[in-house]
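Illustration: Cytochrome P460 family protein.
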Amino acid sequence: MAAWAGESTVTTAVSPIYGVSLPQGYRQWELIAPALEDAPLDELRTVLGNKLAVDALRAGTLPLPDGAILVKLAWKRQRSAAFPSATVPGEPTTVQVMVKDSHRYAASGGWGYGRFIHGQPADEAQHKTCYACHQARASEHDDVFTHYAP
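Result:
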């Protein structure tokens, strides 16, 4: 399995529009929920959160407090060579970050977004779609798709 860009070192590169970077130590954060994306992306995903985000989602506290950070890791799905009926992570595709700061990101529902491919921020066009998609599909849940998995 390929290693995630930024797994051993975190890039200082920031996303266009929002200025979000990969948070230090995010790979050691607690799991909030797994996810599976069918066609066309065909990805396995996990959402991790810092302590503030995990505690709020676990308690059902919305909106999430300022300082909450969510990180989604995504990989292409592939069949396990050892156990073909199992799906395992394949090639990594993106690391996506949401940072809650209701003052800094007031124009985007209080959230700043970052999408990273091989540790580098995706282009501005990809970032322009973040808030619109979250607001259109998850406005009743503080623009967050993920729910805490018990």
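Reading the tokens back as a structure: The first helix runs from residue 51 to 59.
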